[in-house]
Amino acid sequence: MNESELRRSVFVAGLIQAGDVVLTTTPEPASQIIRMITGADISHAMICVGKSSVIDSTGDGVHARNLERLILEPGCAGHVLRPVKPLTTEQLHSIISFARAAVGTRYSITSAAKSVLAGFVAGRRQFCSRLVAQAYRDAGVNLVSDADFCHPGELLKSAALVEVPNVLRNLSSEEEADRREDIDNVQAMRDSTNALLGEARKMSSEIESLNDIDAYLVEHPEGDAHLVQALRSSRYLELWRDEFERNSWQYHVALMEGADGSEQRKQRYCEELLADERLCQNRFVLNHAGYVTVNTLHPRQYFALKVELYDLLTQFRARRIKAATTWLERRGLLEPAPPRLLRPHTSEWFASLREWNPKQAAMAEAATRATGSLDVCSVCADDPVRDYALVSMPAAGPGTLRLCDDCFRIRSADEPMKPF
What residues make up the domain containing 294? Predict the structure, then answer.
């Protein structure tokens, strides 16, 4: 065995993209048994959902984790597989949404053991290879013959996937020491999610994922107080503070300029962030819209707190995007793009508002339908009107309104606006 085979290895994150299937193994006895039974050199499967972010199912359930923190022990294999036929944008969004919706689902060791056999009925709990195969099946792509019961070795041999080359590199001794000392910050999210779900499962054993809590609460409003307390006690609403304090340099260009690290590292971070923003739907925006809708139909304090949370997370995401964009523009690495304001009551304007706040979009659409005209106030349907833009553009949504004089006076008291 040569020296390189004795070193631990890591994935080259820059070669891995959203939708990729990541396969690994460990020296643990359970992994050795899986490899022996399946005849493959791997025992675990994950799916990449964004920059260095993968989702998998392990003993503590379905959770996201940081791929850059994953260290493979000497002699342990790692593979990255990509669809032979490139995914469409819609398919990629479907796969990522499926994986994210499963977060919190409990792990099924029984189903995992049965995955090398046939004739069993799929349950709702997850294991690693099932999660990957089902996410792809949900997007209309069959990786294996039976997505409900498959093992990682079947994914490795799938004719629908092709291997990405050179995705592993050896760690130096210095890098290994640094990584071992680093804190697994994603673990805090896993612990918080499990704590929230643990409290929810006291109310219903049918709850597996976070989405199941929403469905339960729609039918059982009496559970609102308990679930609100669980949200707070689990620190689910506070985790953003930890992230902000840990990576405050990412949220303002002045802090980014003064932060430790090379220009190359900062450039790579900024470019990867903007590429991820272009490729993947902003889940904070989507979740905000979803909770606005469900809270309109079924008012609960739990849903209202989720609306506030995703409003805040959207704002923080926008700050990161702005800082990264400005940093690249200052160095001539990105062409400045002039801000584009959407004219109120156009189809683009309604689509933008609907994506962020379906309730407000529905009210504006009702106002125009009631009068049979688009040249009426977005709020009360009166006229005459003028078009206004918010002085401080919001993190999401169009940021423009068509208002009568009365509604302008009321709205501009809290949200300064200017005509355009």
Answer: 183-330
Q: Is residue 294 included in any domain, yes or no?
A: yes
- What does the pLDDT look like over 44-96, one tens digit per residue? 899 999 878 898 877 667 778 888 878 888 888 999 999 999 999 999 999 99
Other beta carbons less than 10 A from residue 269's beta carbon: 20
Inside any domain, residue 125? yes
Average pLDDT over residues 93-100: 91
Nearest to 183 by CA among 107, 135, 247: 247
> Does residue 181 carry a pLDDT above 80?
no
Decide if pLDDT at 173 tops 60: yes
Residue 365 has pLDDT above 60, yes or no: yes
Average pLDDT, the chain: 87
Q: Which amino acid is at 282?
A: N
For residue 167, is pLDDT > 50?
Answer: yes
Residues 133 and 31 in one domain: yes
**Contact status, residue 103 vs residue 210, Cβ threshold 8 Å:** yes
56 falls within a domain:
yes
**Helical axes 301-330 vs 239-246, angle rounded to 10°:** 10
